[in-house]
Amino acid sequence: MNLKKLVLIFLTIILFGHPPLVTAEKSEAFNPDQDTGFYYTIQKGDTLWDLSEKFYNSQWDWPGLWEMNKQIKNPHWIYPGKKIQIFLKSAASSPKSSEPVLKTDDPTRKIIPEFVYSKMNRVGFVKKKAVPSLGTILREQDGNLMMSTNDILYIKPDSPDALVPGRRYQVFATKKIKEHFNDEQFNGVQHLIKADIQVTASKKGYVTAVITDSFLDANVGDRIMAYYERTPELTVYPDPDPIDATIICSQEHSLMINDYAIAFINKGSDHDIHPGQIYSVRQENRSAFDAFDESVKALDSYDIQLEPLTSGRLIVLHTEDIASTVMILSSARDIHPGDMVR
After folding, report:
1. Which of 61, 252, 270, 308 gets the most CB atoms within 10 Å of its CB?
2. Could you list the mean pLDDT of each consecutive 10-residue stretch along the chain, which spans 342 residues?
3. Gap between the Cα atoms of 105 and 124, Å rounded
4. Residue 142, in any domain of the structure
């Protein structure tokens, strides 16, 4: 045993006397409307020491768990039923990391973390066809072209009873997607959710509504759909069956897709993909010989297929029939539309 570990054991015994225990002390409430990341719900009998061993194959990472969870005032006191945040093993020194590497070979108890995304209700999605519209924005009360929180809207319903006073709805816009990946054509409709609204009154030929929460500026011509309720808490499946998918685009159609960005892949519920599954992002590993002229590349000795590079990880947030909405968890290099998901 090396000197560093002996010193750590000595300090642990002096300061704490024994590994952190579960006791019934109150801790700050977890708020899924404000928090995002990987979490675990403390069970009876858990200690930070044992959880560190189960999550990271090392009991000595428990100080990182304590450091990351400021609501734990004393590591002796962790309270069953409360949530703690868990971190990435390869970056234990950085509490901002958010992707755990789980120990899965423990036969005594299965550790099931959760991923929480506080903005789940506003993430867009891709379907074969557009969601039926319930109404169309005619104008904002004061004539504003860009509409946000607390603005009053005039909306034309698509049918007399389509929009009911007192109910919540969402403002959305659509964009057709046509992409060609690996000799396959992908056709779908991207839905961009812009705001939550509440209908306040029904008038002759139109209704009034107030924007209760704005994510993007709403505009004249944007449409209305039923409130799209989704839970912010997902059970994590770190090792799902492999898939053969491709990143279609980011939600904003950026050329480069980096950490925490929302994107879409061309596989969904029809392909047995579920929220909470984690996959790797791969990129083609091109040989330097690709830069040579065709006569050189044609030589058999240069016909080498290199293993793809792993460029990042993503988690599935939401699934539709033909596509899934995902979040990039980490990226070792820039991720682009067309990259492989495995």
Report:
1. 61
2. 46 42 41 70 85 77 80 80 72 40 50 88 95 97 96 97 97 96 90 98 96 97 93 89 95 92 96 95 71 53 71 95 95 93 94
3. 36
4. yes
Looking at 116, 148, 168, the residue that finishes a domain is: 116
Instruction: Give how far Cα 151 sits from Cα of 146, 201, 227, Å.
Output: 10, 14, 18
Of 154, 342, 337, 165, the C-alpha closest to 252 is 337
Which residues constitute the domain of residue 27? Answer: 12-116
What single letter denotes the amino acid at residue 121?
A: N
Tokens of 251: 């939600």
Q: Which of these three, 211, 226, 241, is where a domain ends? A: 226
Which pTM does this prediction carry? 0.78
Identify the pLDDT of residue 23: 38
Contact by Cβ (8 Å): 41, 114: yes
What pLDDT is attached to residue 144?
Answer: 95
CA 241 to chain centre: 19
What the block records as the tokens of 62 is 């428990």
- Identify the pLDDT of residue 66: 81
List the strands of the sheet with 114-116, edge to edge. Answer: 83-85, 37-41, 114-116, 233-235
Q: 252 and 199, same structural domain?
A: no
Using CA atoms, how far apart are residues 328 and 305, in angstroms rounded to an integer? 27
Instruction: Give the pLDDT confidence score for residue 181 in this predicted structure.
Output: 81
Q: Which residue has the tokens 């994107």?
A: 263
As a whole number of angstroms, the distance between CA 248 and CA 323 comes to 9
Cα separation, 319 vs 270, whole angstroms? 9
Alpha carbon distance 339, 332 (integer Å): 13
